[in-house]
Specification:
Layout (H helix, E strand, L loop, with lengths): L1 E4 L10 H6 L7 H10 L3 H5 L18 H14 L4 E5 L7 H17 L1 E5 L3 H4 L5 E5 L2 E6 L1 H6 L3 H17 L4
Parallel strand pairs: 1-2, 2-3
Antiparallel strand pairs: 4-5
Helix pairs in contact: 2-4, 4-5
């Protein structure tokens, strides 16, 4: 089975547990809790009235966007999936949620096969194999260290981002 976490995912006007399980009979409350803990969503869910029975508004309008992303991430992990596809898993989230998702992704890489589609290089840095695309074609492949060593497109992206980070850290006059 394949699980997918898309950049734009939908939350139903149902309970959090429903939104994670999505009528999959094999996804028990124990599996819902386990997946939520795995992606660091459990702590905020515990703070909600009725916890996993808390009813979301259509589109998850009564929780933050970051919390919604964590629920969708738990949804992707709650089933019996051997392959997980993450399509821009950290897009449109605050830095706290991004860090939580990054930590969860690092853990997932150890247990599952993951295909991560990402513009943020921090999402893929620890991948076994990185495919670099340019103009719709794969132009490089290798590990982070290997791609840096070969000074190609990927290394150029890292250098550009490092330069931007250094510039952003400079004090304003």
């Amino acid at each position: 089975m394949i699980a997918l976490m898309q950049q734009e995912s939908y939350l139903f006007a149902e309970s959090i547990s429903f939104n994670i399980a999505l009528n999959r009979e094999e996804v028990t409350l124990d599996k819902i809790r386990e997946a939520s803990k795995y992606v660091y969503a459990h702590s905020f869910i515990e703070q909600l009235p009725e916890e996993y029975d808390y009813k979301l508004l259509e589109g998850g309008k009564n929780i933050s966007e970051g919390q919604g992303r964590l629920i969708v991430f738990a949804r992707a992990l709650a089933g019996e999936s051997d392959l997980i596809v993450l399509d821009e898993a950290t897009s449109s989230v605050d830095s706290v949620t991004e860090n939580l998702i990054q930590k969860a992704i690092e853990r997932i890489f150890q247990d599952k096969t993951v295909i991560a589609i990402a513009h943020r290089l921090s999402t893929i840095r620890n991948s076994d194999l990185i495919l670099v695309m340019d103009a719709g074609k794969i132009v490089e492949r290798g590990s982070h260290a290997n791609l840096i060593e070969h000074s190609g497109v990927y290394a150029g992206l890292i250098e550009t981002l490092s330069g931007e980070a250094e510039l952003a850290a400079l004090p304003l006059r």
